[in-house]
Amino acid sequence: MKHYDSISSKIQDITAYAFPKYDGSNVSCLYRNRKGLIRFGSRNCLFDESDQMGKFAIPLMKMEEEAITEILKYHGIDEATLFWEFFGSESFAGWHNWEAKDFQIVLIDISVERRGFLNPKDFIDMFENYDRVAPCIYHGRCGPEIIEQIRLSTFPGATQEGVVCKANRAKPNCHPPIMWKIKSNAWYNALHTKYKDQPEMIEKLA
User: Fold this and answer.
1) DSSP-based three-state secondary structure for 63
2) pLDDT (tens digit, 9 = 90+) per residue, 81-91?
3) Using DSSP, how many helices (H) and how many strands (E) does the chain show?
4) Residue 43: predicted pLDDT
5) Cβ count within 10 A of residue 203
6) Are 53 and 47 in contact (CB under 8 A)?
7) What CATH number does residue 75 fall under?
8) For labelling, which of 28, 73, 97, 136 has a CA lying 20 to 30 Å from the CA of 85?
9) pLDDT tens for each residue of 189-205
10) Which pTM was predicted?
């Protein structure tokens, strides 16, 4: 099963699609036609419901199985890896309060067997009628004015953390789309406050 690459902070001056950046953990599942969702994992490894993350994330992914199966069958897809963001209202910088009662998942990407990762426009079109997908909140170049709004937490549709920008590749492949993240000043301030005595954590999570 494919895993999701880390997202660069290097902003590119090209046309892109912007999506809310949810402050959580990347989780994934493998879909196979006639078997449904059969394998689950994090960014780096597989897990099951005996794992802390799996205990909460797997049931949420399974709840989406019927809707996801309908969409993928409609598009003639027999096998794909689906990538989600898992988070709750108290999640922050990859940390979760496991006592929280409001965890959720949002679909952020898909890699189709023998086709690779979909370009963002194809991803938007495929899941336009699905209600648990990251919405496109902007299409265009991320100029200084857009970047400043995101940094100041005034850009419409952005989360407290910021946005993820994705640009189409000439051809989809085994790697995710061209991507970069733009985070808000407020999020960075919160990160420095939480890990004020752990500079290595700040560097890792920023």
Assistant:
1) helix
2) 999 999 999 99
3) 6, 9
4) 84
5) 9
6) yes
7) 3.30.470.30
8) 73
9) 999 999 988 888 888 88
10) 0.94
What is the number of structural domains in the chain? 1
Backbone dihedral angles phi then psi of residue 76, each to the nearest 5 degrees: 70, 30
In a domain? residue 6? no
The alpha carbon of residue 150 and the mean position of all alpha carbons in its chain are separated, in whole angstroms, by: 18
Kindly state the tokens that stand for 182: 């733009």
- 197 lies in a domain? yes
* 150/158 Cα distance (integer angstroms): 7
Which class for 51: exposed (0-12), middle (13-18), buried (19 or more C-beta within 10 A)? middle
Is residue 129 domain-resident? yes
Q: Tell me, what DSSP letter sits at residue 135?
A: P
CB-CB contact of 33 with 46 (8 Å): no
Residue 138's nearest CA partner among 109, 177, 169, 165 is: 165
